[in-house]
Amino acid sequence: MTATDRSIELIHTAAQAAADKLAHDIIAYDVSDVLSITDAFLLASAPNDRQVKSIVDEIEERLQKELGVKPVRREGDREARWVLLDYVDIVVHVQHSEERVFYALERLWKDCPELDLPEEAKATRGKAEEHAKLKAAEDTEDLGGDWR
Fold first, then answer.
1. pTM of this prediction?
2. Which of 45, 40, 9 is nearest to 109 (CA)?
3. Are the CB atoms for 47 and 135 separated by under 8 Å?
């Protein structure tokens, strides 16, 4: 069994919406062979809670407007550290970068086929690492480079 055309359409629209809101490390997996509850997972992350919420809102709005679907379940809203949108055919996980590293969902699903995504979404790979390095450099600079 493989992800349906409908699932792939949902994944592509959600991935593009996430990329438009500058999500990091967008990746999708076809989990239809290992899970009976959904066809595909989309993972994305952001360096702060506000951006996580912004990405989630954009995904929801775009899927509603373009494909006429609403999530049957939305979890994790209040903290905006890890928000899950369940569309039955697909499940979208938008995580704060720290949660993404800690929970490492990619490790769980690494044996599942990766789904092709729009170019803008593919271009987000490595952005979290890049952001972390910039942040570390800024923090060092804030300390005046001399912390003695």
1. 0.88
2. 40
3. yes
Mean pLDDT for the chain?
90
pLDDT in tens, 39-71: 999 999 999 999 999 999 999 999 999 999 999
CA angle, residues 141, 143, 148, in degrees to nearest 5 = 130
Contacts of 47 (CB under 8 A, 6+ apart): 24, 96, 97, 128, 131, 135
CB–CB of 82/95 below 8 Å?
Answer: yes
The amino acid that residue 72 corresponds to is V
Count CA atoms closer than 13 A to 141's CA, side-chain side.
6
Structure tokens that stand for 120 in this block: 């803008």
